[in-house]
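Customer escalation, tier 2.

The customer says the design service returned an amino acid string that "doesn't look like it belongs to this structure." They asked us to rerun it and document both sides in this ticket. The original structure tokens are below, unchanged.
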């Protein structure tokens, strides 16, 4: 049997891991479940990711990109004349319009760092990256406070089952911005 070269296999495995976590939670993640979802041999998952923590790290990095990309692409975040609180509230609204399932999955991976210390540096990378994006508009402490509030708002929407309220978010973010 000839060996097939598949340059996208690693990416397909990461995407499959994200789908498995989305469907079954982190408890349902195994090399075997990911291999089945990605339609690759089991050895491919262990070749690219020797541990489940390595696979979770890759999945967390990929999933962190959704809100980060929205923020990086926002010209208003770089504009000192733009309403910072209003723009952050708008971006959170766009994030939730992408579907509750995606947000649930991203926060499940993000909060997995509570129990899996290998994921903590990736969670910190995300926070640091968001703080860097906001640093052109505010001081570092306020940037971190804004991120913490945004996380809290997202968690409340996800845990309480309510709808995202952009006006409330704008008001609360505005209080932090001062």
């Amino acid at each position: 049997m000839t060996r097939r070269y598949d340059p996208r296999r690693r990416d397909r495995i990461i995407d499959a891991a994200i789908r498995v976590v989305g469907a079954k939670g982190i408890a349902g993640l195994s090399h075997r479940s990911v291999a089945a979802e990605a339609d690759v041999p089991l050895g491919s998952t262990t070749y690219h990711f020797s541990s489940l923590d390595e696979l979770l790290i890759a999945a967390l990095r990929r999933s962190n990109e959704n809100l980060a990309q929205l923020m990086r692409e926002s010209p208003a975040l770089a504009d000192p004349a733009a309403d910072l609180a209003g723009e952050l509230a708008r971006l959170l609204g766009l994030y939730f319009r992408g579907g509750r399932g995606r947000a649930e999955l991203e926060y499940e991976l993000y909060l997995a760092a509570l129990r899996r210390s290998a994921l903590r540096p990736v969670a910190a990378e995300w926070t640091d990256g968001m703080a860097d994006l906001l640093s052109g508009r505010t001081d570092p402490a306020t940037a971190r406070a804004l991120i913490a509030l945004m996380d809290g708002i997202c968690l409340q929407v996800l845990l309480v089952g309510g709808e995202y309220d952009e006006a409330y978010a704008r008001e609360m973010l505005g209080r932090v911005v001062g």
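Tier 2 assessment: The sequence is consistent with the input. Residues 19 and 37 are 8 Å apart (CA to CA). The chain has a mean pLDDT of 89. Sent an explanation to the customer and offered a walkthrough call.
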